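Suppose a classmate hands you a notebook page containing two proteins, each written out with its sequence and a corresponding row of structure tokens. How would you begin to make sense of it? This section walks through that situation. The first entry is reproduced here exactly as it would appear on such a page.
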Amino acid sequence: MKNISTLLILANFFCFSFLSSQVGINTNAPKTTLEVKTIDKDNPQSNEGVIIPRVTSLNVTSAKQHGLLVFLDFEDPLTVAIERGFYWWNNTSNTWIPFFSMNKMTKDKTITYVSCKNVFDEGPLTSVSTNLRTLGFDSTTLIANDTGNFSVNTAGELVVQKAGTYHVQGVISLHNVTNGNNPARDAYEGIILVNGVEPVPNLRTAYGFPSGQNILDSNTAISGFVTLNVNDRIRFSINRYYKDPTFTDAATITPNGTLSNLTLRYMGNF
């Protein structure tokens, strides 16, 4: 008789659960289709929570339900082509879409900083010299929390080994000194080049040294987004595009060293 009563109770419970279409774990009054509650939210147990199915590969050949959610528990340490984390299946594009990955907490927040040398790679910029100059980066100043993906080559270019979209912030600071009392009506453009070519959108800034001052510093900023591939090289190019024709003294424009710098923030590989 006791066993029959138990069966009836269980039958009623499952019947109620089916009719209500709501399931509660650690609660008798679920507020949604499925509600999981911790016994003590201020002191949760180590075995409380929900584990999404863990997989070591993402199958793309067989049919799947739209919105299927899995946790990829594998990552290639060399290419990191597919990152460890949560993925959901998009039937429209037949692809796995990253919902949340560990790299969104670490590698995707890569911030790389490097400052420039105190001299131009091609020599000092004077009133009689060529206008174009490369403001090279100093390899000893490179700071990155993802150091294996960034380096400075012998040409003073920042070499990127991590493909993706970056938010670029650059500061160009130059020092203008004239000989004698003649004013230097000079202006320059600072341009960020990728592999020697200005990216789209153009990333540049401009500054004009006013006349009547013998010594003057300039600080101009560049900001924007750029998509980079593996082995892309970034550098600053300085172009003096105007000079007072009456100015004959050999004015020298030199970098202000660490005041000229570049910061990259990795936004992801879209």
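The notebook's second entry, a different protein, reads as follows.
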Amino acid sequence: MSLAITLPPAFPVVGLGAAAIAFLQIFQMGVVGAARKAAKVPYPNLYVSDAEAKADKLKLKFNCAQRAHGNTLENVPSILALFGFLSVFHPIVATSAVVIWAFGRVFYTLQYAAGNPNNRNGGLARTHYIGVLTLLFGTLYVAVTKSIEVFA
């Protein structure tokens, strides 16, 4: 048994999704860097202590910015796996989903980095859920339907 994958003509659009993830990471590095500078947190410290963050709002904002970036980094491997798989079969859907995810993560970052972690998922930040759910359910749909075709 062999499985041949032919990339659809629209596959080059996937580069836009990959670029969206890269731009998101660059944006977040800038937010963390600006917060680090404002709070005067020296390298290589990843975070400041809770006591420091409670005593200085700029240090709290730094911790929040760093956490927003860290949370995104924790999610990127899953996003890339789902994006990569789905893009082979539905490149426009996959690219749209990952761009929506990245767009939502920009607002997630801005809201989290403002210093109130409870506000990180408000407003436009919620759009990242649309992206990740589209990637997840799109991947599941393709995996199940293609598996049925192969094993039927």
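A careful reader of the second entry would note: The chain is about 75% helix and 0% strand.
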